[in-house]
Structure formats: structure tokens, C-alpha cells
User: What shape does this take?
Amino acid sequence: MEEKQEQQEIFAMPRIGDAAPAFKAVTTQGEINFPADYSGSWVILFSHPADFTPVCTSEFMTFASMEDKFEEANCKLVGLSVDGLYSHIAWLRTIKEKIEYKGMKDIEVTFPLIEDISMEVAKKYGMIQPGEATTKAVRAVFFIDPQGIVRTIIYYPLSLGRNFDELHRVLIALQTADEFGVATPADWRPGDDVIVPPAGSCGTANDRMDSKDEEMTCYDWFFCTKKLDKETVLKAVLKK
Ligand code: BEZ
Assistant: This one.
């Protein structure tokens, strides 16, 4: 019975649209009460397998060097691994004092890094994936909106470093969808055309196909796009 409960805990994970599970934790920046402390901001909660490992080091240097870009878009970063606080502090100090990598040096990680030796938070967020590792978190990324709702979840295995430009693109696309009531097509970047809401939500399919709106292009009744210039997107999403 106990074993079954433990298995359920390990496999529990929030889904898109769920309220982000709440927890209190000790971090390199003091205690946090998540997600309450982040109310009104977007937050990316992400896990890494272990301190003092190469892929994680390359990721932390990259994420920390891009922190301003996320901050501009009203998004805070919060990291987690199942290491302890002193390991986190020593690793981040080593990164700052010793590591020069791909033009990045003297990198100070100022966002909180959660210590989670008990794996309590990692289990709550489904970051322990036993087929990959039972003693480490995989590389999970949770995008949580200003209302505390999980909006996107991305998982990577231990061996694969994340693409932080993609994480930034996801953040801006989510904000654009909210702000303009649109969807974003494959590989969308600010300035590219966006998808207008499907037929039924604004008029009939034929209305859309026959529309004289020069901004709108319909490829078929179910697939219409419109222009949304980069400046308009960035003005709306960057530090409202
Ligand atoms: C790394 O970050 O380099 C790493 C961590 C755990 C397993 C494999 C690689």
C-alpha cells in the first residue's frame, strides 16, 4: 500500500491548465512560497539533474546570461535539483569564478535555485522519471502564468541541453496568444503571421473565406492567418 502511494507520488504531475502545485522551499535566494510569491508574473520553474555536471553548467550559464530577456517579458526563473543548498552555492560560485564558456564568463546566477534533497517538489511536479533516473530530476520546464496556471510543459532527458531561445519563443507566443486572442503557427516568431480564431468563434467559415480584410489570408476554410507586426507584439508583451 505504502509502495503504491510512493509510486503515485512519483508519477503525479500537473497538466496544462492545472493550478501549479503549491510548495514552500529553501533556495539560494532565501525561502520561497510557490507560486504565491510570483503572483502577477510569469514564472518558469525548471529542474536539472545535478550540480557540478557539464550539461547543467552550460544550461545555467546560458539561462543566467539571458535572464534580462525573460525579465523584460515579465517572467521570473526558478531552478531546482535534488542537491542541497551548500552544493548549489558552491557550484554557482564555481561557475562565476572559474568557468568561461562560449564567450560567457563571470556569470552570476541571481535567480533562486531550490534545494530539494527530499525530492518533495520534484515528485509533485513529475520531475523524477524512473525510466531515466530514480535519483535525479530530468530537465523539466514548466511555464506558469501570472494567475498561477500551468500553461506549457516541456521535458528533456538527462543528456540533452535545452534550447533557451526556444523557451523564450514559447513565453512570447503564450503571451501573444493571450493578448491578441490568436494562435501561433509552426516556428512562429514575433512579426510572423498569426492564426485567427477558428470558424464558429467569429462568423462562419464562408465569411472568413470571402473576407475582404487585406490583412487576412485563408488557405482553406479552417486555416486563416493575419498579419501581426513585430512592434505591436513586443509593445504588448514586453513589460506591460
Ligand atoms: C550533465 O548535466 O552533464 C548531466 C547530468 C546528469 C546526467 C548526464 C549529464
User: Anything to note?
Assistant: The chain is about 30% helix and 20% strand.
